[in-house]
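Key idea: predict the complex, not the pieces.
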Amino acid sequence: MKSKIKDLINNMNLAKVRFWTQLVTFVLFVYGGYFAIDLGSELPIFACPYNGESAGACYLIPLQHQLSMPAKVLLGGAGISVIVGLLTFLFWFIFLNKAWCGYACPIGTFQDWLTWLRKSMGIRYSTYTQNQFEKLSKIKYILLAIVLLVPLLMGVGALDSDWSAAFCKICPARIISPMFSGDLSQWAIDFSSITAMVLTSIGMIFAGLFLAGSFVKKRFFCFFCPMSALHYIFSSFAFVQLKKDGSKCTRCGDCYSVCDMQIKDIADDVTSTNILRDDCIMCLKCVAACPEDDALHFDIFNVKAFSSTKEGFEKRMGIEKPKGDRDE
Amino acid sequence: MSNLIKREIESPNERQNRHKAMEAIKVLNDLREGFKVPPQSMEYFYNLFEEVYCHQKALHKGKVKVGTMCIQIPSEIIYALDGVPIRLCNGFYTDDEIGSDFLPQKACPLVKASVGHLASQNITDKPDMIYSPTTCDQKTKAGSTIEGFGYDVVDVNFPRTKESEISREFFRRSIREFSADLSSKMGKKLSKKNLKAAISKIGYAQSLYHRLSEFRKSSAVPILGNDMFLVTNAFFFDKIDNWIGACEKLVSELEQRVKDEVHVAGKVSPRIVYTGSPPIFPNYKIPLIIEESDAIIVADETCSSNRMFNDRVAVDEWFVNDMVDSLADKYLKACTCPVFTKNDDRIRRIIELVRSYSADGVIYQAFAGCTVYELEQRSVLEAMEKAGISILYIESDYSPSQHGQLSTRVEAFVESLKIKNRKRS
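Result:
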């Protein structure tokens, strides 16, 4: 019985499972407001409350808000609210680790749908070269620094209130998310001050790049996502992990070639057991594309929940008995 | 007077055929009759080799035959374009001797035999064109020699450092160029449909190999290593659909054998992982000595067998370009050929095979003249010592001599493994 369930899971059609999970989470987080669902404002995904129907809010919003309090207040009692916020964020995060990105983030899901659109038009995806990849993948840390430092600078009075929620102003999710409920009002430049004007203009450019970029490049924005960088800091505490058994790996590169995020370590690193990298969105496509038994596995509390298997690989790659002419 | 004795003078080709038939039938008879209980489904393979190598039967009349000098030419692409891939790696001593006229005396017997075979022009399924990947020095240089015999030889660029991203990109381009070249020669285009079907077909053939290998993990091994070499060797030239059919039968027979615990070797026969220069029919010299010395080959790490089937193609988006790129990746990234600068992957593969097939030792054969395997011997031996795995290194060639000293060494090694096992238990 147990092994049957295991086979069923290991042989699953991951693409389908993911599609439906993403659809459900998308509806939940984007339209949850219609059903009066409110999951709080510490979600580890880009569930953007600029979209009025969102069922919760991205943690970067309260984080920026809290950090922008005057330094005195922040170092006094208000510091507690920062800690409580962070703990709530971690509470959500540890359940799914980076799978929040691959399975629950509406902005991530939206990019996958753009990918689907491109695919159905018969257009091939683009990739970065290794050099570009290494440079670009650092940008998310710069953005994370903006999320953290700009509010702190406001708190000490170095920046004025026009800088409030500075990251949100440049974040493409602020502009894209409201569109899901028909609100196009974020496609605008705020002329109230020079700072606001510059930031919202950058935001418009980023949103444009987001749409064009994710059409040609799988998960284009995730490379730059500061939430992803924040995740990575805490990822080793999560209940679910992506693991690798290097001794079983032949470094064939199958996992690497299907990886939306072009993470090379997944194929080449045969010494780390925890193979989760900062760019990973834990979509588990690598596990699904690995032809070696148990070389890659997704663990819940250190128990293998979904493992790579030869059989599962063959099913997912559509390998079946061919119809050919044989001499008898 | 003169019509009393009718003498016919044997032509060089006839002589070559006769000598090759002698080499072939000797090995086939050894396999048929020298061991206890060969699987019945092996009859297909014994007959196939007899037909092709003793009776010069052509298998692919009317088809375009695409010769490949090494494992790195994706047969998926050839099948998708309606060609038949023929791997030209050769194991005949007769051809080795012919090849000696064209290559240095100390060159690798496999390359010499492949060149000799093509030089003789005496080929049943003669390739219409030959693709030669630039793998080891000798094969790389053999390309131009073969071109001199009047064949259409195309070099396919192959990088020697597989870790780097540059190599990956380089080989992807190289394979794109190869498919464009073949496509124009065949007058047919690669399409999503024909390439996917070919990938799926080869994938299915691979899955049969994997299932056969799985049986060899059990304590009662249902098939000889030599028989397995014959099965995988047939993939070089057989009609793929026939091969698949024959393997399906073999799979179901072996499945039954595992259930009935039929063991083709002795109870205490040590289990061997075979690695090194590829045994190619009929040069089963070392594998035969091993299994005649009461050991059993349970797995191998060679390009004529395991390496050809082990690694699979994964594609994310099934467009022609993606499939071609994925194919290129498979033939480069997963390859454990010693031509590469570093080769930790090969060592890791051998250790993993020893573990998962519960082998007692490794036998590493290098052809005298097969420089890359000779060079890598040291590092592999060191790694095995570190891992506590017994290993024997042997140098051999295609000549029928040396049998005595080789079998003495192998027997001694097998005996030492037996003693070790006895001590352990």
